[in-house]
Amino acid sequence: MALAATKSSRRTASRARRRQQLIDATMKSIARKGMSSVTLGDVAREAGLSQGIVNLHFKSKDNLLTETLTCLADEYKLQFDAALEKAGPRPADKLRALIELDLRPSICDPQKIAVWFAFWGEVKSRPTYRRICDQFDCYYDEVIAGLCEAIIEEGKYGGVFAEATAEALGAMTNGLWLSCLISPRSWDRKRATDAVDSYLRGVFPKHFPS
Hints:
Layout: H1 2-33, H2 40-47, H3 51-58, H4 61-87, H5 91-102, H6 110-120, H7 127-155, H8 162-182, H9 189-203
Helix pairs in contact: 1-2, 1-4, 1-6, 2-3, 4-5, 4-7, 5-7, 6-8, 7-8, 8-9
């Protein structure tokens, strides 16, 4: 019984590793060729596997792409939640940690950004992609807006609105990601961070002093 359980556990782990290998290959293929041009054969070649293995694990391109988007969103959420917890109780520290996360190399990476934008470009015609992206965006927006609201209350900032501030921060992040994607060689992480810091100092000067 113990031997059978061990073998079953190994098969499960091996299957999970193979699926992740194929998802990683899908991200690389999308970043290189674009979503519409990617085929299961491209993914198989990128992973160094047969197309039959891709079919065995995902059955279709649609399934593979959906799993890839889910994996990308889950990976971000894990890092997002970890950054929140590690930052401590102060809302300003939490907000700063999330801004730093969005510009961290593991997140703000041209390949991953290319994949995000590829999926965002498909949400109008793909309800499944829309659902995954909407869940991701709503969670992100609610947390950022909640932190902004807490900072506004702490600092008694008049004329500052949490949702508008959160939208501005989100727009800045998307713009900086796009700049990183379009001009990766000239894009500078420190300048990007300084740009967001400048905005935060203007909106919340008591919490983000010069």
